[in-house]
Structures are given as C-alpha cells and as structure tokens.
Amino acid sequence: MNYLISAYSVNPYKGSEDSIGWNWVLQYEKHYKQGDRIILLTKKFNEIDTRKGLKEFNIKHVELVIVEVPNALNWFREKHSAFHHMYYILWQHWAWLWVKKSGIQFDVIHHVTMNDYRIPSELYKAKGAKLIWGPMGGAQVTPKSLKVYEKNQLTATFSELVNKSCSWNPFYKKAIRSYHKIYCINNETQNQVSHILRRDVPIMPELALRDEYKNLLIQERYNDVLKVVFVGRLIGKKGIAFLVDALSLMPTEMKWELLIFGDGDDRALIEKQIADSGIGKYVKLMGNRPLSQIAEAYQQADIFVLPSLRETSGNVLLEAMAYAVPIVAFDTSFCSQLKEVGCGIFVNTEQPLDNIKADFCNAIVTLGQNKELAKQLGQNGYKYANEKLTWDEKYKMVVETI
C-alpha cells in the first residue's frame, strides 16, 4: 500500500506539534509491511533535523519529500509570525500540487499536523485515497467568566467568529465531508465537527507517552512545603494571571510554593502581578530549564496546575501523569476527559469568576492536606497514561479505519 503522511510540523528533537508529527512517522515505520511505500511530506524548515532524525533513529522505509512555498511568499513565515496560519494554508496548496503531479496513487493519506480543524488540507482532492485527518482540535474557547484574562479580546473574538463560520461555509463542509475518517482531540471540537457532518466523530487524544516517560519509577514525596508546579509559556492564554489571583486566596498558615517553569512575552507583566499580589515570597519564576531539571521538578511536585484559558490538549498534563502528579485544572478541553479518569481536581468554569478562583484555590488546599487523596489521583493518572495514552493505541485506532 502507498501511504502519505502530511506533517507540516515534524521534528524529532522538538516538542509540541513537531513531536506529534515525528511520533506518527515512527509508528508508520514500526508497522511497515513488505511492499508498502511510505512518504513523509513536510516543509523546508524541517529538512535538516528530519533528515538527521531519519538516520539517527534508523528509519529505513520512510521517504522524505520537501515541499516549498515560492520564495516570494516566504515572508509570511519568516517576517510576520501573525500570518503563520496564512503560510500554513499556502503550504497546504503546494503540498496538494506535489501530490497531483507525483502520479502516485496513494491508498492512505494521513494529515497529522497542524491540528487546527478550521484549516482542512487540500489533500481531500486526491482521488481513490482513504483520507484520515487528525486528531485535531481548535474549537475550544475561553469560558465566559474567564474572558477578563484574555490579553487580546479582539483576537479571541475573531477566533470564535471563524469557528462559527465553519458551520455554514460550503467549501469547508465539502472538504471535511471528503475525509474517510476524522478524529478530534477534545469534546468542543468533536461537537462542532459532528454537528457539521451530521454524524458522530470519534475522540482520539492528541497526546501519547514518549518511551522515556513510560513506567517511570515513582518515589514517595516527603515535602515540608507543598510544591505546586506549572510548566508552559508565559503568555496570556496560559492563565497565569488567573493562577496568581487564585493563589492569593491561599490560607496564611499553609506552607507552599509555586514553581513556574518557562518563559515568554508576558514575563514582565507576570512579575509585576506577582509583586503586587502579596504572594511574591511563595512564587519562583524558574525560566526555561533543561528537560532534566523539569523532570526533577515533576518528580518532587505535590501538585501540577494548568490554568490555561483555552488549551487544545496540553502535553504537560501527560508529563505530570507520567510522574503520578495529581492535576488541578479547569474542566474544559482534554481535561474534561481526564476528569472521568479521576487523576486530579477539575474546576467547573460555568460559574462566577470569584467562585472559580475559590474552587481552584480550595482544590490545591485539599490535595495539600489530604495526602492519600493526592496519591490516589496521581496513581490513577499514571495508570491511565501508561495503559491507554500510548502511540501503539493511537495507531491501532487509525489502522482499524483502513
């Protein structure tokens, strides 16, 4: 069979969507059968690292094809990051042109990245191929009560309007109806796409444990001070401003500290808010640290927090579960699925803001005071991640549709 992996983002040495694209490559290589032809289609920007990875990881059956947008249009990516999605659309067009001109009759085309349901690949035009898209997300929006923390209200409003337009755009509907199978990352995207297609679309978690995170040896935690950890970029939608406000409600008699790993455009604003909040002595901005130091932080953490206003899924959640760390987050997006697993406390966002802050703070206090509960929730997450959130399980879901 002829397989095409469309991976705009793929890199064996990076995280996020690059890592997702690369892990799909590993799965197709792992399940190669005699006579198969597997082609990886990606952009020029990935070429050096991808070629290095194919050699280093002994990938023998995946052919690399580089598709470039004409140089005159490269400024969308190189000069103006705000137009990144426009560049992605342009790349998709030239990817389709390559497929059309290649003369290859593909049996399966799997579009794996980027994972934005609002931008379907033009590869749906390929005749005779079974097209698979996803898992993908993008329909999640900031809960009403939390919109005050949106740094750019105009951008958030525009994004929601684009989401709504997908329901009536005939060109969009024609594209997604051409796919053999579509997988959605979270309930919000599943509901939106199912409504458009008028049929149920399955959920498939975007995330899966990398080999180095599987079946880790978990040590008992004996911290005198409750260690709360956040890992992520310091940008508005990650909700750190909310987190600081919520932690301002912590009991004065409780010993705790918040370690914030990561950096970003909003660092100065966050530093000022922490200073003004009166909890500065409890909060440490750790900046960007090597993976080894972040791994050590997970190993020692009592609680992992993710206060993101709108998160597609959150790879850091999976890392926390790999270290059996209980989670405190909102009951939205991928976390609404984790809530059913019982691996943390997930705060209801359909209530007034003051209640959300109080509940978020109380969740941290509860886990800090009830060590047995914290341990049980952490173990639930550890078991779920190691048994269900694996790349083998994800590949099986895809193969069953072929």
* CA-based gyration radius: 22 Å
> Taking all residues together, what is the mean pLDDT?
89
Number of strands: 12
Oligomeric state of shown chains: single chain
How many distinct helices? 15
Low-pLDDT parts are none
- Secondary-structure element sequence? EHEHEHHEEHHEHEHEHEHEHEHEHHH
What share of residues is helical?
A: 40-55%
What features would you highlight for this structure?
16% strand, 402 residues, 6-stranded parallel β-sheet, 15 helices, single chain, alpha/beta
Report on this model:
The protein has 402 residues and is an alpha/beta fold. The chain contains 15 helices and twelve strands. It has a six-stranded parallel beta sheet. The protein is globular. The termini are close together.
Q: What's the topology here?
A:
Blueprint: E1 2-7, H1 16-30, E2 37-43, H2 47-56, E3 62-67, H3 75-78, H4 84-102, E4 108-113, E5 130-136, H5 153-165, H6 170-176, E6 181-184, H7 187-197, E7 226-231, H8 240-247, E8 256-261, H9 267-277, E9 283-287, H10 291-300, E10 303-306, H11 315-322, E11 327-330, H12 334-341, E12 344-347, H13 353-369, H14 371-387, H15 391-399
Parallel strand pairs: 1-2, 1-4, 2-3, 4-5, 5-6, 7-8, 7-10, 8-9, 10-11, 11-12
In short:
The chain is of the alpha/beta class.
